[in-house]
Amino acid sequence: MQEFCQSCYVVSFTMFENIDVNGETEHPLFKYLKGEAKGLVSKEIKGNFTKFLIDSEGEVIKRYGPTVSLPKIKVDIENLLKI
């Protein structure tokens, strides 16, 4: 996938990389996201597929747990886009 994007779209940055989402070596993006939208029990990310809804200004609107399905988030996305 990365080779495709690099050759077709001249992408020069790393697209897929394993990063830490919790702990001392957590990626700054997740540090910011978790600081803006804490989970129900703690700010730590408990599992894969935690989702964050972010507006066009970069503000975190809402955090969704891994078990929340995309159809349940659709209403929030449509409200944010004012569809």
Question: Could you list some keywords that capture this structure?
Answer:
single chain; Glutaredoxin; 35% helix; 83 residues; alpha+beta; globular; two-stranded antiparallel sheet
Q: How are the elements arranged and paired?
A:
Elements: H1 2-9, H2 28-36, E1 51-54, E2 60-64, H3 70-81
Antiparallel strand pairs: 1-2
CATH class: Alpha Beta
- For the record, the count of structural domains works out to 1
Order of helices and strands: HHEEH
The tally of helices reads 3
Radius of gyration: 15 Å
What is the CATH homologous superfamily assignment? Glutaredoxin
Distance between the termini: 32 Å
CATH architecture: 3-Layer(aba) Sandwich
How many beta strands in the DSSP annotation? 2
Q: Beta fraction of the residues? A: 5-15%
Please sum up the structure shown.
With 83 residues, this protein is α+β, with helices and mostly antiparallel strands.
Describe this structure in words.
- The chain is an alpha+beta fold and 83 residues long.
- The chain has a single domain (21-81), classed as Glutaredoxin.
- The protein has three helices and two strands.
- The protein has helices at residues 2-9, 28-36, 70-81; strands at residues 51-54, 60-64.
- A hairpin with a 5-residue loop joins strand 1 and strand 2.
- The radius of gyration is 15 Å and the shape is globular.
- It starts with a helix and ends with a helix.
- The mean pLDDT is 86.
